[in-house]
Structures are given as C-alpha cells and as structure tokens.
Design brief:
354 residues; alpha/beta; Rossmann fold; 7-stranded mixed beta sheet
C-alpha cells in the first residue's frame, strides 16, 4: 500500500464533506454500497485482528476506542456514548476514525464518524435481517426514535423492502420528528402510543433506545412467532432493552461474542449460552433463519470491523476528489532522523519574516 505523495498531508473528511458525499450519492444508495463493503469484510472475518473495544466508563457515559486490522490496512474509531448529553443540546454519540497503511504506519484517512457510525450501524442491522428475518417481512416496529431511527428505517427499506413503519418513543416529539423526516421516502407510517402497540403486526422489531441502564422495552408476551428482533440500544455493561425471557425464546446472533457477552443483551445470560456469529451465517458456515416460526435476535453492539469497512468505503468513494480537506498532520523532515533540524529551520524562517 503506497502512502500519499506529500507525506505530511492526510485527507480529512469533515462533517460537511460527509454530508455532501451522502447527499451526492443518495442516502439509500450510500447504505446499499456501504452494506456491500461490510458484508465483504464479514466474509473474510477470520483475516482480521479482533479484540473487544477498549472502554473507559464514567458515571455519565463511556468513551471507547475500536481498533482492527486486516494486515494491510489498520483502522480505529474513537466514540463516546453519553445519553444525558441531549439535556444540554449535545449529541449522545460522537465519533471520528482513522485508516492507516500497515506497511508504513502512515495514516491514509481521517474522517468524522458521527454520521458514518449511524450509517454503518443501520447497514449492519439490515445485513443481519437479510439473513434472519422472514423473506416476506414488510413491517417494522421502531422503538426509540432518536438519532439512529431514520437511518435504520432507510437501511431496511433499501436492503429488504420494508415499507411500513410503526413508531414509538417515550418522547412524542422524537416520534413526530422521525415521522416528518421519513415521510418523503414513501413509507406507510403509524405513530403508536406504546411499545406494545408498536409491535402489533410487526415482522421486524428494532429497539434503539439510549438510556444507560437495564430497561425492559420488550417483554416475552410482546413477541410472537416468526419475529426478527434487531436489538441496537443495548451496547455497554448494565445497559439492556429486553426481558431475559425474550432471550431464552430466541435464537441469538452476534458480531463478536467476547464483546457482546459483556455489552449486549446476552450479558443477562450465562457466559456459555449458545449464540451464532453473524459472519458464520453470511459465509454459509452456520444457518440463520431455519423456520417461519423461529424468533431470531440480532444482539447488535457494533464492532470495529464495521467501522473499518465504513472507512474503507469512504476512502474509495473520495479517492482522487479535490472536494475534501487536506490536513498538514504529519512531520515530514528532509532527513527522517533530523526532526529537531526541521524545527530549527522553521524557527529561522519565522525569524527572517520578522
């Protein structure tokens, strides 16, 4: 892998750049193409370095680093999760990521990942549902209508043909905003007054709530045969969305068990409770949905390979573009070992300008 011609310069995808890229591509096309990159990397899952994300927990939230490498490229994401932030007008989740050349160690791309994380989370959810939901699924209950909700809806529409939504959030304003944002995309949308009402007639149930505690968004009596559950909100220790009895009735699919057993819904179960890794289903090594009445659960917590895929996709999309920012990020002395000399030359230049 070659490094940039100007070794000090690293392409930077700002929030504005990312929005322009998504708008120019079209959000549904972007989700489909991104999903292709994620699915390709899941098919070569065993070629990646894998560790659970490195998390620093506090009373108010968590800050995490999510690294991985395929031996040629290295990627990591910095991401936080602070549910109380919305009370002061801040985002619950913010993120940025880096993609680097393994051979030289030089960064190849620095990118915002607040928007990109929302897109890759939704794309991964839809990939899982492609293998786990019933083929005729068309109606999705979306419980938790925060920042992730529209992305989830559009990913399921783009990849699975979901066209009917049943929305519920404890904040009616969030549901109203979600409905308003999605109406232009051709959905049949019903606003519900409870989670129980939302799951009625739903083929797929997506939970994407933000509260940092063990909640009970779904109870056993709410889950009928044949339903696929996309559990997005439970993603750190002590934060879940489902009653344990729901898990005991479902066949559970996960990204990386050592991480999900600590952070996901299955933190409620014994450490040896059987789960299936999603990459094994995608490659055909394990079976996904096996019957029309089977209850399936994708216990999604987000894994570093998905971020790697997203960075790889964005780098390919912007390759050669002049509409992205260039950062003077790396020291590039004339003689690699003369870093101090580079400083002295800068000092002389500044002195001569005075």
């Amino acid at each position: 892998m070659s490094v940039p011609a100007n070794l000090n310069i690293v392409p930077f995808i700002s929030v504005e750049n990312m929005m322009d890229l998504v708008v120019a591509t079209g959000v549904e096309r972007f989700l489909v193409e991104l999903a292709g990159y994620i699915e390709d990397d899941f098919r070569r899952w065993e070629s990646f370095d894998k560790i659970p994300r490195v998390a620093s927990h506090s009373r108010d939230g968590v800050i995490e680093l999510m690294p991985t490498s395929d031996g040629t490229l290295y990627g990591f994401k910095y991401v936080n999760g602070h549910p109380k932030n919305t009370n002061s007008g801040l985002q619950t989740v913010t993120a940025f990521g880096v993609l680097s050349d393994v051979e030289s160690g030089y960064p190849l791309l620095l990118s915002e990942m607040t928007i990109l994380t929302a897109l890759r989370t939704a794309a991964t959810s839809a990939i899982a549902a492609k293998y786990l939901a019933r083929k005729e699924a068309r109606t999705m209950a979306l419980i938790g209508n925060g920042a992730q909700s529209e992305f989830q809806a559009l990913a399921f529409k783009s990849l699975l043909g979901i066209d009917r939504l049943r929305l519920y959030d404890i904040d009616p304003g969030a549901t109203a905003r979600c409905r308003r944002n999605l109406e232009r995309f051709g959905f049949d949308i019903e606003t519900c007054i409870s989670a129980e009402q939302a799951v009625e007639t739903a083929d797929i149930i997506t939970t994407a709530t933000a509260d940092k505690h063990n909640a009970t968004i779904l109870t056993d009596n709410m889950i009928g045969p044949g339903v696929h559950i996309n559990g997005v909100g439970g993603d750190c220790p002590g934060k879940t969305e489902m009653h344990r009895d729901v898990l005991l009735r479902a066949d559970i699919f996960v990204e990386f068990p050592p991480q999900t057993r600590v952070e996901g819904e299955i933190q409620q179960l014994s450490f040896d409770h059987p789960v299936t890794e999603l990459w094994q289903v995608i490659t055909g090594e394990k079976m996904g949905r096996s019957s029309e009445k089977q209850i399936t659960l994708f216990d999604s917590v987000g894994f570093a390979i998905e971020d790697f895929s997203a960075l790889r996709y964005v780098r390919d999309r912007v390759s050669g573009s002049t509409s992205i920012n260039q950062l003077d990020l790396l020291a590039d002395p004339d003689e690699p070992r003369d870093l101090f000399g580079m400083l002295l030359r800068r000092q002389a230049l500044l002195a001569s300008a005075c």
